[in-house]
Design goal:
Structural class: alpha/beta
Keywords: Methyltransferase, Transferase
Radius of gyration: 18 Å
Organism: Brevibacillus panacihumi W25
Helix content: 40-55%
Largest sheet: 8 strands, mixed
Number of domains: 1
InterPro entries: Methyltransf_11, SAM-dependent_MTases_sf
CATH superfamily: Vaccinia Virus protein VP39
Strand content: 25-35%
Protein name: Methylase
Order of helices and strands: HHHHEHEHEEHEHHEHHHEE
GO molecular function, one term: S-adenosylmethionine-dependent methyltransferase activity
CATH class: Alpha Beta
Shape: globular
Number of helices: 12
CATH architecture: 3-Layer(aba) Sandwich
């Protein structure tokens, strides 16, 4: 049985993304980014493939890959998010996408159903990342590709906790960002071999970033004050730019990896 905290976390995700569905379709940090341009080159999709896009959000990955494969199955925990993605993809003229409301940690698909699986900027919302990766491996065919993109934290536990605290204060649907090392361990434990990877820094306009998920000015001010009172070395890691005691910009780490599922030994 899922723990109470797990259910509460997933309910928070549904509420957050349900009320902001259209915004996530248009969000620059989701709709843009050179990672979308790299998808095809990294995955090397084939016309006969059926691809699973987990936590599709605004449908950006599904829309990018759809012209190159037989079908994309786009899943999301939040029905309004799926509906918004469907509308955006229809406007773009993309027709070979099937939409399924599904939990990333309990996928409703048979074993080895997909030639490729993707998940972009979503896993930090999942309460049980180890279960998510087990499900990815289960539904992926041997030799299949898994493309993973998400925000990550450094290996230092204190700094990681600080960054996750900021994210949780800003967005109650946030679960936990893992470090690259933690993701690599989960991949290795589930027969997912990393073939290629890259790190990049993402810079955000802080007022817009914090406003996107906040429930009011009081919450936004609390997040800003928490950063302003943080250790100098932690502020330096995030490259926080402050002017007149106001946070203007900051940056977060993102990790992108392409894996291949190993066959049974």
């Amino acid at each position: 049985m899922p723990q109470k905290g797990t259910n509460e976390q997933k309910q928070a995700v549904q509420e957050q993304f349900g009320k902001n569905a259209e915004h996530y379709v248009q969000s620059p940090s989701h709709a843009q980014g050179d990672d979308l341009a790299l998808l095809k080159d990294w995955i090397e999709p084939q016309p006969q493939w059926i691809v699973l896009d987990i936590a599709t959000g605004g449908g950006h990955v599904a829309r990018t890959l759809a012209p190159h494969v037989q079908q994309v199955v786009a899943t999301d925990l939040t029905r309004p998010m799926l509906e918004a993605a469907s509308r955006a993809n229809q406007r773009a003229g993309t027709k070979n996408i099937l939409y399924v409301q599904a939990d990333a940690e309990q996928l409703p698909f048979l074993d080895e159903s997909f030639e490729a699986v993707t998940c972009r900027i979503a896993a930090h919302h999942f309460p049980q990342p180890e279960q998510f990766i087990r499900e990815v491996s289960r539904v992926l065919r041997p030799g299949g590709r898994f493309l993973f993109i998400d925000n990550v934290v450094p290996a230092d536990p204190e700094l990681a906790d600080f960054i996750n605290r900021i994210e949780k204060m800003r967005d109650r649907s946030h679960g936990r960002c893992l470090s690259v090392e933690q993701w690599q361990q989960l991949f290795a434990a589930n027969r997912l071999q990393v073939l290629r990877q890259r790190d990049r820094k993402k810079r955000f306009d802080f007022p817009a970033w914090v406003r996107r998920t906040s429930e009011g000015p009081q919450q936004e001010a609390a997040v800003e004050q928490f950063i302003l009172e943080a250790k100098e070395q932690w502020q330096a890691y995030l490259e926080v730019k402050v002017e007149n005691q106001r946070v203007l910009t900051h940056q977060l780490d993102e990790w992108m990896a392409i894996c291949q599922k190993k066959g049974n030994d």
